[in-house]
Write a structure and sequence with these properties.
Distance between the termini: 31 Å
Structural class: mainly beta
Oligomer: single chain
Largest sheet: 15 strands, antiparallel
Order of helices and strands: EEHEHEEEEEEEEEEEE
Helix content: under 10%
Number of strands: 15
Shape: globular
Number of helices: 2
Radius of gyration: 18 Å
Length: 268
Amino acid sequence: MRPLHVFAQTVLASLFSVLVGCGSVNSEGDIGVGGTPSETTAEPLGCVDGPPVLAACIEEPGAFAARAQGRVEATVVELDPTGSDLCFRTSITRVGNVPFDASGLRDDAEWIRVQSDMGEVFRVGVLAEGFRWSTELGESIVLEMFEEQPGFVPLEASFEVRGEGGRLVYWLGLSGSAAGLDVPPELVVEEADATCERTSVCIDRWEQRSVRVTSGATTERVGYGRSASLDALTFLHGGLDVQTGSTACPDGFVARAAAAAWPTALGP
């Protein structure tokens, strides 16, 4: 986990768009569809309208802002408490992209309540399709959070929770490339083939790409926005957008990678 350079002072750019300063990257639609069959699957490939919902938040930002390196040791004091979507609305408490429905509300997050080693009690929420907390009541956990976006460069962020014995409970990473993701040691994530080519007013063209993921003895190609079970972990491809053309806007670029992982459920 990287050290915390900026947390409370960082203003997050919107993750609904991977194009900084030039509007939506989807404004002009698709200009082609390509790709090759998966190494381990045969799902059809093509353009995806947007990345999947993928985010994590804490309800008490002071628990991280007051700590060196954004690290908190805590104990789980409640499983599945009622959470507030306000946690996901505020950039100071959130990592990731969270589109809201027409009412502005979400009720699909998974929550735990924890008490830190300094006595703060707060809830931790995760938005990721298929994710369920694997922690137990009374379990000691470590939460680490990092984010940085100094100027017109890709967002760098990570959110990681580990349980007793150092086991991975949840990891979320954001970067400008697959190679830039702060991946936990249980995983290897590499850029793979293009599945779609797109364009916009500011960017001549860019590609949506799949990733090649290794966990233990299992390696699988995972399509843009898809998930896969690898060894003992579930991996969610949150999007990989790579600019291949020219830029018409002075501050425009496409460079975004997002991913998450958590233990694969063994049963109900």
